[in-house]
Amino acid sequence: MVNHVSFIWNIAESLRGPFKPAEYGSVVLPFTVLRRLDAVLADAKEKVLEAEASSTGLPEMAREWKLRAASGHEFYNTSPFTMAKLVADPADLRANLSAYLAGFSSNVRDIFDRFEFDKTLNKLAEKNKLFAVTEKFAQADFHPRTVSNIQMGLVFEELIRWANERSNETAGDHYTPREVIALMVQLLFALDDDALSKTGTVRSIYDPTAGTGGMLSVADEYLHSVNPGIQLSLYGQDINDGSYAICKADMVIKGQDVDNIRLGDTLTEDHFDDKTFDYGLSNPPFGVDWKDQRAFVDDEHAKLGFNGRFGPGTPTVSDGAMLFLLHLVSKMRKPEDGGSRMAIVLNGSPLFSGGAGGGESSIRKWLLDNDLVEAIIGLPKDMFYNTGISTYIWVLSNRKTDDRKGRVQLIDGREMYSKLRKGLGSKRNELSAENIATIVGLYAGFEDGEHSKIFRNEDFLYRTITVERPLKLTWQVTPERIDAVFEAKPVQKLSEVDASALRAALSSLVEPVETTWTSRPAFQKALKDAANAEGLTLPAPLLKAVTLALGEQDDSAEPCLDPKGKPEPDASLRDTENVPWEEDVDAYVAREVLPYAPDAWVDHSKTKIGAEIPFTRHFYQYVPPRPLEEIDRDLETVMDQLRVMLTAVER
Length: 651
Known about the structure:
This protein is α/β, with parallel strands linked by helices. The protein has 27 helices and 18 strands. The strands form four sheets. Strands 3-2-1-4-5-7-6-8-11 form a nine-stranded mixed sheet, sandwiched between helices. Strands 12, 16, 17 and 18 form a four-stranded antiparallel sheet that branches. It has a three-stranded antiparallel sheet with strand order 14-13-15. Helix 2 (24-40) runs parallel beside helix 14 (241-253), helix 3 (45-53) packs antiparallel against helix 4 (60-71) and helix 11 (178-189) packs parallel to helix 19.
């Protein structure tokens, strides 16, 4: 493998000058695919040409079937050219290359179209590099007898890694660190090794944010190391043309069904809406809004509810990561069909953002209610190329073992890392093989300890109660408050005559002595009497507006009562409390609220159920501050050093 990668990258290095290092991938990746396909189709070349010649007049579907059957693959090439024939005619190389590419089946042509290979070929021709590059690739022996699908896949993955590291783009947009993928893959399969090692095992794996296919490739590599005879079907979708092309090319090289990799926005164009899978992996974008997809997602949520993907709710529009989580869950097989396990990387926000009743909280509650959260693993910071934020792997399953049912495992791997000798973008840390083994061991062991904690699902649920306090007001009429009354909308709608009468009525309550009312009924009686004296009747909306404008909060006043004689709540004193799920609300209020506000009560009609997973809190370890004596000694030591330095300067 190393020899093949070095050979190809030496070709890339020969491009220096006309091409920047960030552009090398646009040349060597599609050329590697082209040479591999050329070698794969070589043995059946004559059969395909004969099938094409005899397909005149056939319907397109029949022709397609005939050509695929002749090639022995899900793709073919009807051009008479091979790469050897192409380099034999240097003068017509550019035109012949176009004809050769046009001869591929549409599912392969799509790869080269998304690579924008024509532009690359034109630039190579313009810089007089086309023949040299084509000739060198034609010399590479990529025939399946020499390089197996697995070996070729490893070569291509290494080329992808090299290309990404040399790219000036944000690597994290389409490339998840390989060791993070390795951890996710091992977590995904850790509890299934026995079943996966059996003869005749057939499994499917899906990545809705496939990028360049790294997760699918590592999963494929791992499972074939466990069981070389396993039959795997890999499925993926991505929105980015370049990433999609690389992923699709990687699947072609591995011998996978090329039609299982699709291009499109997973949230709005689910190309596998009729399929479910044994396993799923995903690293969706962190903190990216979904404004462009909002109309579609909201429409699906409203019309399909739980028959669609987003039944539990939708998160705030500023971060769509939880939409991908729900999408992944929708791809689980039913438990009676064997169930599924999925792993997804998310930032910290999905653990706790949003209050009770909100979209994020409702999604978490639904996941817990349905016992789908198997484990959450905290990763070290500075693990990804485009962000240094905290990240977490969520392991989701609808086929938990009996000891895990109704339980969630939290694993703290935040301090399990090795420092990179040289940073790559925001990436400063990496997971060593030992770190991965430790985390996977904690997951498989399923025991409480310093870095692993087991909780019941309901431990993450809570009730948000609304605590009310009675409205207590006093009323005093002053010239300043009268002016405030006339700023209220109902008062502003009065005619000039009525407004004048109201002002006169209010002024009569000022003289001769300012009076303070502590009872609303008493104040409103005085107000009505004054208004009647001016020939003005106060309808209910106007009476309420004037009463509110002249009232001032005062704890010594009598509570204001509603028509049923119950205290009215003061909106300005309204508060909420989060009560743990298992705790009695009345007992909580008696302990936490009433000692400080004896007149408070709970409005149970406003109670909401929420869910949050305070990961950091559960692993917090208190570190006491240093003793003052120790700090004083250190300060004195520093002062002594300064005195010595000052003495030296004075001399």
